[in-house]
Amino acid sequence: MLDDTQDTGARTTATHHAGAGAYPSGIQGDGVHDNTHPQYPRDGARRTTTRDAGARTSGADADVRAAGGLDPADAIVAQANEAPTAERPVEGVVQVLSPRQVPLGGLRALEVRRTLPHRDRSFVGAWCFVDHYGPERGVGMDVPPHPHTGLQTVSWLFEGAIEHHDSGGAHAVVRPGEVNLMTSGHGIVHSEVSTPGTETLHGVQLWVALPDVTRDGDRAFEHHAPECVPLPSGQGSALVFIGELRGVAGSPIVTHTPLLGAELRLDAGARVTLDVDEGFEHGILVDTGTVTLDGARLERGDLGCVDEGRATLTLDVGDEPARVILLGGTPFEEEIVMWWNFIGRSHDEIVLARDEYEAGAERFGSVEGYVGDVERIPAPTMPPVRLRPRNRRGRGGG
Question: Which of 44-58, 99-113, 164-178 has the highest mean pLDDT?
């Protein structure tokens, strides 16, 4: 049923078990491919990049466009299963991942800027998928029912509103400053549609890989509207929607590995030093403005990543106010196979999930309440090669 807290805007938390979260790119594959290798400096320089700043679209993305906006299954596998040989970043260096433009298909398609997964980095903590989209006016979202396994999805909006239904019976709307989190467990199906009054869509869609011990557990859904609180420096504010930002605020949302997710609104010209967990990897995704993270300049859409071992992060803001998403988590050491909307541990697991979804198995259930031109999104054909796992550094597994 509809979550009353989302209609009233109250700053409370509501939990429904057997629910699902929204996923704008629910019909996409993983799109890992990048035509360039990062050149990590050997002199201790503070910045690394994955491509020239002006090159925002890889050859694989062009292939996606030629295919009508959907990732062809063969291309997905070629992208996901490459075994890059890029070096590990020099200790203390910020790894800057520039986004790939990915169209989500259809006429007047919504385009997203995707930074994870990347051929040279699979995770920030257990965060394994980062899409950043908008602001887009006049582009609605209508994603029919589609499946997920082995993950949590996190929906966070800056503008607009998205309604979802799921096979656990949950029906909810997420609005700016609120978070919807879905735990897929062994399997779930859900839909998401922008509300009739939504004129602009702007936000992020994130995935979290579930650890092996809980990935085949129950479905769950949570909604939370965090309070906007000032940063200790007085030069901005934060909405912490996942985990805890030290000295600032925390969230009651349940995760299966230690995680952090927060929106930071930073004043123009500010220098902000954040106290963070030394055991976490961290990422800074820039939505508006420009930010320098420990000496590495980040522009709109960039994801700046740092490894564990830091007790603080320092952000210097440009001449305009900035808004960023801060992600963090303990290193995720398990290898995963990510294909279409499924996360598993082997090729055979993905094949089984696809076949069971196509057969309408109870594993996924069905969505009630969605009204659209199609009943559900069919799964793409499995590719003619075996999918291989990827580890935290983006390298192909066995």
Answer: 164-178
User: Rounded distance, CA 345 to CA 388, Å?
Assistant: 9
Cα–Cα nearest to 133, from 187, 76, 87, 192: 192
3-state secondary structure of 347: helix
**Torsion angle of alpha carbons 135, 367, 209, 382, nearest 10°?**
-100
**CA angle (87, 92, 98) in 5-degree steps:** 60
Q: Provide the token pair at 308.
A: 């564990």
CA distances from residue 210 to 26, 74, 153, 157, 368 in whole angstroms, order as listed: 17, 26, 10, 23, 26
For residues 168, 260, 111 and 83, what is the CA-based torsion angle, rounded to 10 degrees?
Answer: -100
Q: Are 389 and 398 in contact (CB under 8 A)?
A: yes
CA dihedral in degrees (10, 172, 202, 127; nearest 10)?
Answer: 100
Q: Is residue 167 left, alpha or beta, with left meaning phi > 0 and alpha meaning psi from -120 to 50? A: alpha
What rounded mean pLDDT belongs to the chain? 80
Tell me what pLDDT residue 397 has.
Answer: 54
- Whole-number Å distance between alpha carbons of 262 and 251: 10
Phi, psi of 75 (to 5 degrees): -65, -40
- What confidence tier does 398 reach under pLDDT thresholds 50, 70, 90? very low
Are 206 and 130 in contact by the 8 Å Cβ rule? The answer is yes
